[in-house]
Structure prediction request, 273 residues.
Amino acid sequence: MALLPSRAEDVGMSDHSANALNEQEEALPGGNMGGATRVDATVRRPAGAWSPTIQRLLGHLRERGVTWAPQPLGTDEHGRDSVSYLPGIVPQYPLPDWIWSEEVLTDAGVHLAQLHQASASFDAIGRLWQLPVRQPAEVVCHNDFAPYNMVFTDRRLAGVVDWDTASPGPRSWDLAYLAYRLVPLAHPDNGDAIDSGLGERARRLRLLCDAYGSEHEPARILQVAVHRLHDLAAFTKARADQGQENIRSHVGLYRRDARWITAHADQLGRDVA
Prediction:
């Protein structure tokens, strides 16, 4: 399940210094659960029971050519999870206009397909994950594959950050959330979305599905997106009930966007020349 918009600049350059005496730490804004800190060419964050699984997953992905994922570096001398850092632009809301280019949309679809192809062979049995495993567990989903977790160089996608909430699930779970954020599949009053008509959004949804290169059709992705948003609303409400009152307003936004998709599914899922 995807979380709230975040901005942790935490993918890869190179080595992890063993000597912390001369290291300067820089708190990074955003991050799904917060607490991300840059130390030289690395990013550190509090480790969880799932951290060894994510470290193994990142190593598996890089061995299979997903070099735009962060390099896993184990834990530091304080027991924090450590990955490599990649300089670049991680967009924040309101998103810059260039994020809505076709190049970014198709790059994102291609990168997500690469992730899924590489993660399908990961041995996920018996691993601990921060988020629940969803069936069918076809691949390991990033679960928050969206512009605010993407690193750009010269306005082209160069990396993806915030892998802590990855977990096994169906390909469509990730693709539907990417479509929600980047097509976008959202109510026109959603300030995080671009102002575009239904025909343009239908065209962009088809373009994204084609870039991903699977059998997933727009109509199916729309169905999953509705489920995805209701699930996200429930998750967000639970976090708000536990004390994070600042995110409670997102619950209504997700539910409204889900209703908007349902109301316009026929137009958004139609074939576009």
